[in-house]
Amino acid sequence: xxxxxxxxxxxxxxxxxxTNYLTRFFLDVTFFGGAxxxxxxxxxxxxxxxxxxxxxxxxxxxxTMALNDLLKIAIKNPRPFIRDGSWLTKxxxxxxxxxxxxxxxxxxxxxxxxxxxxxxxxFACINNRAVRVIAIAAIFLIGFSRxxxxxxxxxxxxxxxxFGLTMALASIRYGDPIATAWGRLSSMQQATAAIAGxxxxxxxxxxxxxxxxxxxxxxxxxxxxxxxxxxxxxxLEMRKVNFDPRSSGVLTKMLRYLLSLGLIIVTLxxxxxxxxxxxxxxxxxxxxFEYLRMTAAGFVAIFVAPLLFTRVGWAKRATM
Length: 320
Description:
Layout: H1 8-16, H2 20-31, H3 35-48, H4 51-75, H5 87-90, H6 95-102, H7 110-125, H8 129-149, H9 154-183, H10 187-208, H11 217-240, H12 250-275, H13 284-311
Helix pairs in contact: 2-8, 3-4, 3-12, 4-7, 4-9, 4-10, 4-11, 7-8, 7-9, 8-9, 10-11, 11-13, 12-13
């Protein structure tokens, strides 16, 4: 597919008018449009306030990011400055990030798409003026940060916003019926559906990618893995733990949050070190291990962490 005739002049204009202060500011802002930020926020909501909202936010943003990678692979539009080879000097991102971004396609923007889905859903579900102002500001600032840093066209942002908002609106409209239908399935059926859905998403990504396993299909597999972990852990948590996220004081809630994050990080690091013995990242085995690693992380976040902090008295069981 030929590169899309997007407006490179706009990205060049922003690059020509960068300042050190704004660059540092937008590097910080763009973090909140990435998967790590969504995880931090969703886990916080899960352990201190509202489990259902956290689960729905996680499912929404993981599916949105998976869809984003599928669209990028299908459209195959290179990022700004890739074709003339000047991206190393034109992009205002750390070299490590630049190398990873250069290997991925541009359209639509994953940051714009994920943030518009995630923060729009927060806007709709939380009737608080401050939260809603922050949600709107996050969507626009995260979106603008990408062309400012040189890694996306303005059109990428507009398309990302459109797709992300559509995902959020669909979740608001159909979330309850889907949750009801999902709840009628047994735990085994839910786990089987999650694994089968993950396989379908990954195979679709590989097919669109010309049969190649390496590259962005791996991202789809990672998102699907975390979703699988949630699907397996959530009914187990409800039966075995069923903690009340509103129980305990502020300090104890913060301890629950830190424990949850710590367990997720340790899980990812340990399994990453073990599975890292497989050097070929384009192999089927490495992709399977990555899927299992992310599944384990999702399982730890939703079930193992609540089990532990309930056992040590940091949370009470919900009253039925």
